[in-house]
Specification:
Strand order of the largest sheet: 2-15-17-16
Largest sheet: 4 strands, mixed
Helix content: 25-40%
Distance between the termini: 23 Å
Number of helices: 12
CATH topology of the largest domain: UDP-n-acetylglucosamine1-carboxyvinyl-transferase, Chain
CATH superfamily of the largest domain: Enolpyruvate transferase domain
Shape: globular
Number of strands: 23
CATH architecture of the largest domain: Alpha-beta prism
CATH class of the largest domain: Alpha Beta
Radius of gyration: 22 Å
C-alpha cells in the first residue's frame, strides 16, 4: 500500500553525512515494456522485482481490460501474466492511462494488432496534451481507423491488425512512439519497415526496447539510411517471442539518480543495491555527470556507490548535454544551488511535453529558491545564489518532487530545521510511492 501524505511535506535536512544503502523500485521502463512482452509470450510469465506504482497499476488494469489474466503480488514485487501469444480477446475496451506515457503509447500500438477491435484510449488533462500524433498517423497507414482531435487523446481506434510493409513515423516528440511499434511489429503479417524521423533510433530508450526484443528471441533489426535525414528500421514478422517463465526486472536507474546524488548535498556515501554498469537503462550514465562534479563512483557485487568527502563539498561547474538521459536532468538541476559554479544543461527540449513543462517548472522553482536562472527551448542554466526558504510546487510531476526532495536534505541553517517544503509529495506514486520514506530511513539510520 502506498504511503499517505498531507499536501505539504517539510523536508528534514541531514545533520551528518549519509552512510547507507537503499533499494529502489524496479525500472518503470522495463516493467511496462515487460508487461507488454509477457502478453506476447505463449505461456505464463512471472516478472520479479517489478515496479508497483501508478504507471504500472494503470498498465495492468488496461491489459486486464483487453482480456489478459494478470496476478499482482505487490508485497513480493511479483507480477504473473498469462501470455497468449499476443492475442487480444476483448473486441471492445476503454483504456484509461492517467498520465502514463508508456501505457498510452504501448497500449495504443498493441491494440492495433487485433483485427476487428474498437478501443477508446484516454488519460488526464496533461496526458491529453502529450504527443500521440506520430503513432496514430503510423497506425492509420496500417489500416487502423482513428478518431481523435488533432492527434491527441482521447482517441478511438477501430483496428484491423498490422499488414506490415513500409510506414512513416515521426518520433521526434517521444521515443516511446517508436518503441511501441517495435515491440508489436513481430505480430504483423509481413515485415514492417519503419521510416522514422527525429533520430529516435539512436536514443537509449529505443536501444533498451531493442535489447529486450533481442534477448527474447527477435532477430537483430536492420537499420538503413532513409530519405531526408530519416532511418528505415526493418522488423521481421512472424517470429514468436521466446520469453522465459521468470524474468527479473532491474532497479530503476532514474530513481537511483536521486540517492546517488545525495552525498553531493550532505556528504558521505550511498550504495544503490543491485544497480550495475551493465544495466540496460541509459540513465545509469547519469553517474558520469556525478563524476564531473567531483564525486567518486564505485561498483561491486552489491551495487553502485557514490561518495564525496564532506570537506570537498560542494562540487564544481558543469555543462552537459542530457539528451540521452533526460529523465535525470532535474536531479542535477535541483541540486545546482550547492555546486560552486554555473550548471548548464542542454538537449532537453522534448521535456517541455512530458508530465509537466519540466524546463519551465524547474526554472520557476529555482528562482523562488533565490537562484539566477536562464532557460531556453533546449537548455537550463543555473547560477547559484543564497538559498532562501521556499515551498516547491511540483506540477503533479513525480520527478520534480523527488529532485527537490534531495536538495531539501541540505542543512541550510546548520541545526537540522526544515527550510524546503514539497507541495503534493503524493505525486511520487507515479513511479516511486515510498521515495520519502526511503529518504527518511537514510537520514535516521
Amino acid at each position: 500500500m502506498s504511503p499517505s501524505y498531507t499536501d505539504l511535506l517539510p523536508i528534514k535536512p541531514f545533520t551528518r553525512p549519509v552512510a547507507g544503502s537503499v533499494e529502489v523500485p524496479g525500472s518503470k521502463s522495463i516493467t511496462n515494456r515487460m508487461l507488454i512482452l509477457a502478453c506476447l509470450a505463449s505461456h505464463p510469465v512471472e516478472l520479479t522485482g517489478a515496479l508497483f506504482s501508478d504507471d504500472s497499476h494503470l498498465m495492468i488494469t488496461c491489459l486486464r481490460n483487453l482480456g489478459f489474466e494478470i496476478e499482482a503480488d505487490e508485497p513480493n514485487r511479483s507480477i504473473r501474466v498469462s501470455g497468449t501469444g499476443g492475442k487480444i480477446t476483448a473486441d471492445k475496451a476503454e483504456l484509461y492511462v492517467g498520465v502514463a506515457g508508456t501505457a498510452a503509447r504501448f497500449l495504443t500500438a498493441f491494440s492495433a494488432t487485433r483485427e476487428g477491435g474498437t478501443y477508446l484510449i484516454d488519460g488526464t488533462e496533461q496526458m491529453r496534451k502529450r504527443p500521440m500524433k506520430g503513432l496514430l498517423d503510423a497506425l492509420v497507414q496500417q489500416g487502423t481507423q482513428v478518431e481523435s482531435t488533432e492527434g491527441f487523446l482521447p482517441a478511438t481506434l477501430s483496428t484491423s491488425g498490422l499488414p506490415g510493409g513500409r510506414i512513416q513515423l515521426d518520433a521526434s516528440a517521444s521515443t516511446q512512439l517508436l518503441s511501441a511499434l517495435l515491440m508489436v511489429a513481430p505480430l504483423a503479417k509481413s515485415d514492417l519497415e519503419i521510416e522514422v524521423s527525429g533520430n529516435a533510433e539512436k536514443k537509449p530508450f529505443v536501444k533498451l526496447t531493442q535489447e529486450l526484443m533481442y534477448r527474447f528471441g527477435q532477430p537483430e533489426q536492420t537499420v538503413q539510411a532513409g530519405r531526408a535525414n530519416t532511418a528505415a528500421i526493418i522488423v521481421k514478422a512472424g517470429i514468436p517471442y521466446n520469453i522465459p517463465v521468470k524474468v527479473a526486472i532491474e532497479p530503476d536507474a532514474s530513481a537511483a539518480s536521486y540517492f546517488l546524488s545525495l552525498p553531493l548535498v550532505v556528504g558521505g556515501h550511498v550504495t544503490v543495491k543491485g544497480l550495475h554498469s551493465d544495466s540496460l537503462q541509459g540513465d545509469y550514465h547519469y553517474t558520469k555527470a556525478l563524476k564531473e562534479v567531483g564525486m567518486a563512483v564505485e561498483e561491486d557485487e552489491k551495487g553502485t556507490t557514490t561518495s564525496i568527502d564532506v570537506k570537498e563539498l560542494p562540487g564544481t561547474s558543469i555543462q552537459k548535454n542530457f539528451w540521452p538521459i533526460s529523465d535525470t536532468f532535474m536531479t542535477l538541476a535541483a541540486i545546482a544551488p550547492v555546486l560552486k559554479g554555473v550548471t548548464k544543461i542542454s538537449g532537453i527540449s522534448h521535456t517541455r511535453l512530458q508530465e509537466s513543462d519540466r524546463i519551465a517548472a524547474m526554472a520557476s522553482e529555482l528562482i523562488k529558491l533565490g537562484q539566477w536562472v536562464e532557460d531556453g527551448d533546449d537548455f537550463l542554466e543555473i547560477q547559484p545564489g543564497l538559498l532562501v526558504p521556499s515551498e516547491v510546487h511540483t506540477y503533479e510531476d513525480h520527478r520534480i518532487a523527488m529532485s527537490f526532495g534531495i536538495l531539501g536534505c541540505f542543512n541550510l541553517y546548520a541545526d537540522g530545521s526544515p527550510w524546503l517544503t514539497i507541495r503534493d509529495p503524493g505525486c511520487c506514486a507515479k513511479t516511486f510511492p515510498e521515495f520519502f520514506m526511503v529518504l527518511k530511513d537514510l537520514r535516521t539510520s
